[in-house]
C-alpha cells in the first residue's frame, strides 16, 4: 500500500506557488540554524510596571520599567546566522556578506551587542554608523538582526500580546517593537470582521480600526480601495492613493502559518511595485 505524505501548510502553499521555491530553501536553512541555537526562555518581569509608558505610546521593548529577556539570546542567534556563509542554498552575495559579518564579530566583541541594542531601541543613527564603520551591507544586517530578534521573541509573544490587548493599544505601529505593519488579517468576531495588523519585524499582531491607511492615517473612502488578486483567493491588497502605499491582507483563517509570512507573498509586492505603489510597512526583504 502506498502511503501519501501529509503536506504541511507551508508545503501546500509552496506547492501552489513553485516560483517561491528558491527563497523557501533559503528560509529553511535559516530555521535549521536557529533551531540549533541553545537558549533558555526566561520569564518576563514587571510588565504591569510599564503601563504608564505603554499607554503613552511607548512599545514594550523600549519601556524602561520592564525587561523582556531576549538580548543575550538574540546576540547568540545573530552570531549563529553568520554560518549562512557556508550553505550553497544561500545566494552568493548574501554568503559573502555573512562571511564579512562573521569576521567583524571576531575582531570586535562589542559589535554584535551594539547591533542588537540599536535595533531593539530603534536607534538607527547608531546602527548606520556601526555599519558604515565596518563597511557592511545595511539591508543584510537589518534582515539578520531582526530575524534573530524575532526568533528569540516568539516564546514570549503570547504573553506579551495578551497583556497588550488588555491595555487597548490602537496605534498604527507595533505595540511590542514599534515597527510599522507589513501585513494584516481580517478575523471574524461577534461584530463582524475586525482588522489585525502584523508587525514587519517581530510578527506581533494587534487590533486596528477596520477603515483607514495605517501609514498616513487617511480615511477618505475616495482615496482608499481594495485590489483583488485573481491568483490569490484569500489574499487581497488594500491600497491608499493618498500616500501611494499598500498592505497585504489575509481574509481567511487556517493558513496563517504561511499566509502571514511576508516572503510567502513577495510576488504580490513585485506586482504592486510594477503598478507604482510603495511598500511602506517595515519589512526585512527589499523588493
TrEMBL record:
One Pfam match = FdhE_C
Write out the GO cellular component annotations: cytosol
Q: InterPro entries annotated for this entry?
A: FdhE-like_sf, FdhE_C, FdhE_central, Formate_DH_accessory
Q: Per its UniProt record, what CDD domains does this chain match? A: FdhE
Task: Cite the GO molecular-function annotations of the record.
Answer: ferric iron binding
Question: Keyword set for this entry?
Answer: Cytoplasm
SUPFAM superfamilies given for it? Answer: FdhE-like (SSF144020)
- From which domain of life does this come? Bacteria
All residue ranges annotated as the FdhE C-terminal domain in the record:
230-284
What region holds the FdhE central domain? 173-210
GO biological process, alphabetically ordered = protein maturation
UniProt name for this protein: Formate dehydrogenase accessory protein FdhE
Amino acid at each position: 500500500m502506498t502511503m501519501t505524505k501529509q503536506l504541511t501548510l507551508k508545503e501546500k502553499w509552496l506547492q501552489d506557488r513553485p516560483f517561491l521555491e528558491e527563497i523557501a530553501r533559503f528560509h529553511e536553512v535559516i530555521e535549521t540554524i536557529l533551531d540549533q541555537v541553545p537558549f533558555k526562555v526566561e520569564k518576563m518581569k514587571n510588565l504591569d510596571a510599564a503601563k504608564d509608558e505603554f499607554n503613552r505610546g511607548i512599545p514594550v521593548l523600549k519601556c524602561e520599567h520592564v525587561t523582556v529577556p531576549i538580548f543575550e539570546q538574540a546576540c547568540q542567534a545573530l552570531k549563529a546566522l553568520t554560518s549562512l556563509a557556508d550553505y550553497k542554498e544561500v545566494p552568493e552575495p548574501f554568503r559573502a556578506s555573512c562571511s564579512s559579518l562573521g569576521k567583524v564579530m571576531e575582531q570586535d566583541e562589542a559589535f554584535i551587542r551594539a547591533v542588537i541594542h540599536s535595533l531593539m531601541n530603534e536607534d538607527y543613527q547608531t546602527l548606520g554608523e556601526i555599519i558604515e564603520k565596518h563597511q557592511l551591507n545595511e539591508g543584510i544586517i537589518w534582515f539578520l538582526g531582526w530575524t534573530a530578534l524575532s526568533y528569540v521573541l516568539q516564546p514570549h509573544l503570547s504573553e506579551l500580546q495578551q497583556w497588550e490587548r488588555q491595555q487597548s493599544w490602537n496605534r498604527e505601529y507595533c505595540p511590542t517593537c514599534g515597527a510599522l505593519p507589513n501585513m494584516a488579517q481580517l478575523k471574524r468576531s461577534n461584530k463582524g470582521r475586525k482588522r489585525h495588523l502584523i508587525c514587519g519585524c517581530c510578527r506581533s499582531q494587534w487590533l486596528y480600526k477596520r477603515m483607514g491607511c495605517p501609514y498616513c492615517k487617511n480615511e477618505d473612502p475616495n482615496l482608499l480601495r481594495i485590489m483583488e488578486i485573481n491568483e490569490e483567493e484569500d489574499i487581497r491588497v488594500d491600497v491608499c492613493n493618498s500616500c501611494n502605499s499598500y498592505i497585504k491582507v489575509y481574509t481567511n483563517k487556517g493558513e496563517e502559518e504561511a499566509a502571514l509570512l511576508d516572503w510567502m507573498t513577495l510576488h504580490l509586492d513585485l506586482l504592486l511595485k510594477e503598478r507604482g505603489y510603495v511598500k511602506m510597512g517595515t519589512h526585512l526583504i527589499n523588493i
